[in-house]
Design goal:
9 helices, alpha/beta, five-stranded parallel beta sheet
């Protein structure tokens, strides 16, 4: 499963909630990047300049990281990707990785939130956490990138019939309930077991 949405839409929070409900591993590319930046790894040093500017980390770096992560044993029974893929090239790469294991995506969940609400959320988060990629000009740039590139990704998955959209505004538990109801309605087999 993928969870896709603009910056600040609650992807990370909801990914954790869904992962607990379905007993699968949640994988956040943003968290992996931030951990590498914190540890000053080569990947982190390379990624930091892009992240600080609000740009996507290049596909070559991101794909290598995700490919490595999806080869770990804790994803054998399923996984939820948060923040990947963000470009059409990353969709193709993910398709190749999944094909090797004779796997496919079951659902792509898109969280939708109004841009002005997102800006308010992210500016508030920046004040609380001190994240360098959450000032208003960078936030607006990240939103423009999302609308320009990631929406193409959603269109690709929509053509496969696996996208469900959920309003990401409101209390965390309300959004989680909407997500679970949407998955149950759109993809009943996913709710019939523990997958």
């Amino acid at each position: 499963m993928l969870i896709i949405g603009p910056p600040g839409s609650g992807k990370g929070t909801q990914a954790q909630e869904i992962a607990k409900k379905h007993d699968v591993t949640a994988i956040s590319t943003g968290d992996i990047f931030r951990e590498n930046v914190k540890r000053k790894t080569l990947l982190g040093i390379e990624a930091k300049s892009y992240m600080d500017a609000g740009d996507f980390v290049p596909d070559s770096v991101t794909n290598r990281m995700v490919g490595d992560r999806l080869s770990e044993p804790d994803v054998d029974d399923g996984f939820l990707l948060d923040g990947y893929p963000r470009t059409t090239a990353q969709v193709s790469y993910l398709d190749q990785i999944l094909a090797i294991g004779e796997e496919k995506l079951d659902v792509v969940l898109q969280l939708t939130v109004d841009d002005e609400e997102l800006i308010t959320r992210l500016v508030h988060r920046a004040k609380e956490t001190g994240r360098s990629d959450d000032n208003e000009s960078v936030i607006r740039h990240r939103l423009a990138l999302y609308h320009d590139q990631t929406e193409e990704v959603i269109a690709m998955y929509e053509a496969r019939g696996i996208v469900t959209r959920v309003n990401g505004s409101g209390d965390i538990s309300e959004v989680t309930a909407r997500i679970l109801a949407s998955i149950r309605t759109a993809f009943p087999p996913l709710e019939s077991g523990d997958s």
